[in-house]
Design goal:
Length: 409
Amino acid sequence: MDISPPHAYLKSIFRGVKTCTNVELINLTLLEADFKWLPPTGSDVSWIDVSVTPPSGQLRGHERTTVQISLIASKQQTIQDFRIPCLVDGMPDQLECVIHGDVQGLTVLVNSAIEQMTLSSNTQLELTMPLTATASKSCKSIEGQPISFGEDVGLYAPVQRWIEIVNPTPMVAELTTRMVNFGLLTQIKLSNSYCPHLSIGNEISARSQDTVETTKTERLDGVEEKPERRLLYDWCRTFLSNSRGACIFVHTAMTSEDGIYYKSVSKGSNRVFEPVSSWMIPAFGRLRLCLVCVADLWGAYKDCVELIARSVSGRRHLDPEPPTVNLPVQFTVIGCPILLTATSPFGQITNSVGRKLRSLSQTMEFLERDLVISAFTEQAKRLNVRFGDRFIGSSSVNRTVRLHNSSNQ
């Protein structure tokens, strides 16, 4: 009786994932022989679980059979001393199948993308220069490709950028995202179902369109219906309420098991956003994240997105994991959050696009609502104050202009 090959080298062994290989058991004689696989031996037995199929049997003369060996390694290291003995009736010595191989850990590829994503187009990103983060690296963190939201980000104008994380291993991974400086400080729960048009997938865009139409057609008792611009302003203010001029958060996530068909797993669809979010990446799968930036104060901003990948089957703080991926973020916000609104009678103060101004008899609450509707119009950057015709020495004329700080600072 003989084993072919007597030494099996496994090329792709991953921690916590079953790996299979086949060997042949050959009867070199004309006589029938019974065989039985025994428990493995060697110094690496403690962290490797193995099963042999079939565990026992009988071979006729010159017969051969295929034996499948399945093993699961719980440590990320080299298999150096692991043998599976086989007892054959009539043979003084046992046969042995020696297993060798390097047990690998989780690896992820990170790439940032500017193009917009949809769930139907199944866009294939060309990972020309992906950043590789593997558990075999001893460093704690590595820096990836910078993400730029642009040099002309407007006030209360959401901007989106995408990043893609590829899992080339058979291990299921968990990815945690966190913004270092300008992320969410607390959990955000949206009070309504409005979502701005961010081109983040047909399903989400359709939901946004339906939401806008529903909001426009429905009226609440005693409350004036809100136009699109007011809805967008309120949506941005929700994320900027505790910010320092800008806020960056993960709005949408899409996963794919085959790299072709994607499905939305967005937590934003539930109208709940977390300061630290976690996502599952299937084996050999991909995860696409949509980062959204909103701001209410001008200036140059710098931040960093932390991507922490961990294997689901790993033992916390015991097994090696990929280093944290840091993606630098930069953008420049333009525009002034100080807005002008008039409280004098209509006709005395108008803006450059003829904005309708309310009289003093109307409430300040209405002025605040009207401010957002009109003040963000690009052409309404200037107020024209009219003092009328006056004679020399006549009494002074007063006009009232209010300054409104729309930012959180």
